[in-house]
Amino acid sequence: MFGLTRAIRSPSVMMTARLMSSSMHGTTILSIRKGKKVVIIGDGQISLGNTVIKGNAIKVRRLGDSKHPVLAGYAGATADAMSLIDRLEKKIEQYPGQLTRACVELAKLWRTDKYLRRLEALIIVVDDKVSLTLTGNGDVIQSPDGLVAIGSGGSFALSAARAIMGLQDQPGFESLDAEDIAKRSMEVASDICVFTNKSYRIETMENNAE
């Protein structure tokens, strides 16, 4: 699903397959890290089987405080994801400025807790330095290039983002920032994936990654 490395694709593809069998789920989330910005963008569609039950859901959230801001987005069973996001927020408060540690602690709890290990979701979490993906398998996967996507339309959005990033030296593309690339990539995903709509929510923060 993520298309980053072989190790990254395997757990995410299996998890996404499980999520698609859930009764109610959110779909496509994409994160782009470029220049002085890192963004997370998500569509607003919530599906119940093959039926759209909501088109303007907010699946991207800003966590942390003003000193250590964090952006997060989810795909998967909606109630499960929201429960996990709430627990992630507590871990971020417990370990301010240590996003990787906070995510590792959540992943450990997610995998071992009798209740939490039944929750089906995927979460993207980013701060000013790292972009991480969390799964119920206990994985905390750091993106090597700052591009990551999850959900049913994630592969389409990620492919489009990679293609656009590869054209940055071409006329008309060099001026595109992270937000522009994210929106164009989600347009591609929403045109192909029936579980992704064009009601986007986007959150942006300053990028300090080297």
Summed up, what is this model?
The chain is an alpha+beta fold and 210 residues long.
Helix and strand topology:
Blueprint: H1 6-20, E1 24-26, E2 29-34, E3 37-42, E4 46-48, E5 51-54, E6 60-64, E7 69-77, H2 78-94, H3 99-112, E8 121-126, E9 131-135, E10 140-142, E11 148-150, H4 154-165, H5 178-192, E12 201-206
Antiparallel strand pairs: 1-4, 1-7, 2-3, 2-11, 3-12, 4-5, 6-7, 7-8, 8-9, 9-10
What does it look like?
It is a single chain. This protein has helices at residues 6-20, 78-94, 99-112, 154-165, 178-192, and strands at residues 24-26, 29-34, 37-42, 46-48, 51-54, 60-64, 69-77, 121-126, 131-135, 140-142, 148-150, 201-206. With 210 residues, the chain is α+β, with helices and mostly antiparallel strands. It has one domain (6-203): Aminohydrolase, N-terminal nucleophile (Ntn) domain (Glutamine Phosphoribosylpyrophosphate, subunit 1, domain 1), CATH 3.60.20.10. The strands form two sheets. Strands 1, 4, 5, 6, 7, 8, 9 and 10 form an eight-stranded antiparallel β-sheet that branches. A four-stranded antiparallel β-sheet has the order 11-2-3-12, with helices on one face. Strand 4 (46-48) and strand 5 (51-54) form a beta hairpin. Helix 2 (78-94) crosses helix 3 (99-112) and helix 4 (154-165) crosses helix 5 (178-192). The protein is globular, with a radius of gyration of 16 Å.
